[in-house]
Amino acid sequence: MPSKHPQNPSEPCQHVTIADSTIGHVSICPECSVLHLSLSHVSLRFTPEAFRALSAMVGDAQARLDHVAQSNAAAAAAAVIDEARHGPKLH
Ligand SMILES: [Zn+2]
Description:
Layout: E1 16-21, E2 24-28, E3 35-39, E4 42-46, H1 48-68, H2 73-86
Antiparallel strand pairs: 1-2, 2-3, 3-4
Helix pairs in contact: 1-2
């Protein structure tokens, strides 16, 4: 099912890919500027403002993981989970 322009539902969105990776890709509709985040079987649509907020949120989460541990992703995730459950360590 092709997605529709929010402002003009009779026309399907165009998809111009602006980034891709092994897990999916991001495309934008040049007519309505809706961003489409596509991951294997899921596609999510964002306004430019919401996509910016998503990007910032994901970046914040990654920065938190990177801050805790550089080499072991599983240990970093566990440390972030522990910190989220118990609050930041107060020195
Ligand atoms: Zn569109």
